[in-house]
Amino acid sequence: MARLFNPIQVGAYTLSHRVVLAPMTRLRTIQPDDIPSPMMADFYGQRASAGGLEIVEAASVSVQARSYLGAASIYHDGQMEGWRAIAKAVHAKGGRVFLQLIHGGRQSHVEMTGGVDPVAPSVVPFDGVALTKDGFVPASPHRALGIEEIPAIVEDFRAAAQRAKEAGFDGVELHAANGYLVDQFIQDGTNQRTDAYGGPIENRVRFLRETLEALISVWGADRVGVRISPSGEWGGISDSDPEATFSYVARLLDSYEIAYLHVIEPRVKGDDTLHHDHPPVATKYLRKHFSGPIIAAGGFDRASAIATVESGDADLVAFGRHFSSNPDLPYRLQHDLPLTPYVRTAFWGGTEADYSDFLTHEETQALESTEENATADEAQNA
Ligand SMILES: Cc1cc2nc3c(=O)[nH]c(=O)nc-3n(C[C@H](O)[C@H](O)[C@H](O)COP(=O)(O)O)c2cc1C
Fold it and tell me: What are the UniProt keywords, alphabetically (predicted)?
């Protein structure tokens, strides 16, 4: 059997297969307070499998960290019951579930940040978007963080990690990808600081180290993962030498012995596939620098997922879009069953429709045989 369907140790947990749910912000919290909704618990419960790993969509660690109206947050008591329901739904099926923690940094708008300017390591021209009640709008002008403000943000990450623990999650993932705040510090296109947080890579990873150490202080390193996107373009992010930068990051993360390194491959920008036949490359060079489990994500199908794990470049594969429309994706991949196409128009907000109403393969078959029987009955009665 392909290694993709074999057990693996990921930090503190023994997983029974390597098909992971990638974090996907689906904008279905209850407003105005970003309360995780019952349909979110349904969504994650449906996608859980015994010994499988899910990474729950990015949750903002503070008001200032928010980017998109309807996206998740974890910074106040009113949100806790919703989070508990999600962790419980996954555990009921024997799954493991990590929560991704995010600060959006400059990818935001004053309407999302409580009326204050979005923050970033440096002020660099940016034409990205945020999502407010008026839809996707240009991001507000941002300001550079004062060095004295940084400890409070690190503390927000720690407090959110603590909340995730209280809600019953199995671990947390630091969102250091896709051009959000941690990534803005790492990459030199967005970090032009001249203090201890900018300049050489040793300084540009200082914010990553501090937030990571905050999460580890709550969870232990074996229950913390980190997501990076070395070739990412989302959020206007760029670096003058991504391979050198992210090789350094991978070595650094290796030294902490975290549960896993989660790498977005270069084939996707946000939710769009850019290069259809582009081979995965980031894990190829990162593998040399990171000795723990690597999760690869971005544009995988069954064949490429099996191949990347067989090659040893990655140990697990996270699926986003295919998992959105196939709640039993690990089962379907294992048995080479057809996939239900995903529905892009339902990605960013909406109801249960095309979100938590997708059927498993078994349910589809049961429905088809009921329909066939009904047709046969009708024919008999005609
Ligand atoms: C609707 C949607 C929301 C997403 N939200 C997040 C997110 O909250 N955090 C994150 O790290 N990546 C996010 N992503 C990226 C996915 O995790 C994944 O890397 C991407 O979809 C590529 O994988 P795929 O080709 O299997 O879909 C999102 C993608 C989609 C389609």
Answer: Oxidoreductase
The catalytic position among 44, 180, 197, 260 is 180
Residue (of 149, 146, 222, 211) closest to 180 by Cα position? 211
Distance CA 27, CA 70 (A): 4
Contact 190, 107 (CB under 8 A): no
In DSSP terms, which residues pair with 173 in a beta bridge?
Answer: 100, 225
Please, which residues have CB within 8 angstroms of residue 103's CB and are 6 or more apart in sequence? 60, 61, 62, 64, 65, 153, 156, 157, 175, 180, 181, 182
- Reported as a single tens digit per residue, the pLDDT across 72-122 is 999 999 999 999 999 999 999 999 999 999 999 999 999 999 999 999 999
Q: Which atom of ligand 1 is nearest to the CA of 323?
A: 26
What pLDDT does residue 279 have? 52
Beta strands, E only, the chain: 8-10, 13-15, 19-21, 53-60, 72-73, 96-102, 119-120, 129-132, 135-138, 143-144, 171-175, 224-228, 260-264, 268-269, 272-273, 294-297, 316-319
Q: Kindly list the domain boundaries of the chain, sorted by start residue.
A: 3-381
Quote the pLDDT of residue 225.
99
Res. 322: pLDDT tops 90: yes
Other CB atoms within 10 Å distance of the CB of residue 134 = 9
AA identity, residue 94: G
This prediction has a pTM of 0.95
Terminal-residue alpha carbon distance, the chain: 49
The DSSP bridge pattern shows strands 19-21 and 316-319 to be parallel
- CATH fold of 3-381 reads TIM Barrel (3.20.20)
Which among 25, 226, 329 is the best mutation to test ligand 1's pocket, defined by most ligand atoms within 8 Å of the CB? 25
